[in-house]
Amino acid sequence: MSYVWLVVVLVLVLFLLSLALKVVKQYEQGVLFRLGRVIGVRRAGLTVIIPFIDVLKRVSLRIITMPIQSQGIITRDNVSVDVSAVAYFRVVDAVKSVVAIENVGAAINQIAQTTLRKVVGQHTLDETLSETDRINVDIKTILDVATEDWGVEVTIVELKDIQLPESMKRAMARQAEAEREKRAKIIAAEGEALAADALGAAADIMMAHPLALQLRNLQSLVELGVDKNTTVVFPAPLMSTIGELGAFLAREAGAAGVVPGSRGPVVDATPPVNGAVRAVPAS
């Protein structure tokens, strides 16, 4: 009989020890209540409490990731968008997070949704798409002020997804296409302007030097003659210029004192078929 009582006492002792000994993990803090009053905070490790009198409430100090559900928001320029975000927060005061508010996670989720609608609604669609960093900072600042009394610090808030209506997507696509066409036309016009300036300068040089135009024609013919199957059409001004060049050479030869009947070279001023001037020995 005494053995039975010993077993019963041992079981009671073990039961009381299980109620009295509490383990607080490294990433937690324990808020100790005694008869309903906070008497202190217990750090990580083994903690002894008085069963049925003390209550230990564990609070996690790790950063918590909280997705903010997609919110239907009307921007300042009356465009309806669906915006979702994500917030990161952590408890910095375990006592406040337990005493000041009932469920800190649910409270932050609700206030984050309302703050998201409020901040995004103050911006236009273009600002919402291009200035997300500023919107994130504004939301974080508002949440920090609201959650300071709860012993919670909001570390990061990021807009995760912005859904636009299909009609707005098509309009933005048309706008982007028109913008690219405008840039292409401006670049083409600038190229034409530069080419016109260069051609004008070249024309001025050719007017000062008439033979430069014919030399350019000859160069063009050489470039066309690379292909053996190319049919080359000689322009009429080129042929007349070749004749003038032959006459010029004949005048120069006469001025040098070459007379008919002598053995000096005689220049044939007749335009040849290939456009070259040939010198024929005198008889």
Average pLDDT rating: 80
Structural class: alpha+beta
State the separation between the terminal residues, measured CA to CA.
160 Å
- Assembly status: single chain
Overall 3D geometry? rod-shaped
Major sheet strand order:
3-2-5
Which stretches are low in confidence, meaning pLDDT under 50 for 5 or more residues running? 258-283
Topology:
Blueprint: H1 2-20, E1 21-24, E2 28-34, E3 37-42, E4 45-48, E5 54-60, E6 64-74, E7 80-91, H2 94-99, H3 104-121, H4 125-130, H5 132-147, E8 152-163, H6 166-208, H7 210-224, H8 236-255, E9 265-267, E10 279-281
Helix pairs in contact: 3-5, 6-7
Q: What would your notes on this structure say?
A:
It is a single chain. This protein has 283 residues and is an alpha+beta fold. The chain contains eight helices and ten strands. The strands form four sheets. The protein has a three-stranded antiparallel beta sheet. β2 (28-34) and β3 (37-42) form a beta hairpin. α3 (104-121) crosses α5 (132-147). The chain is rod-shaped. The model is unreliable at 258-283 (pLDDT under 50).
Which features characterize this protein?
single chain, 283 residues, alpha+beta, three-stranded antiparallel sheet, 51% helix, disordered C terminus
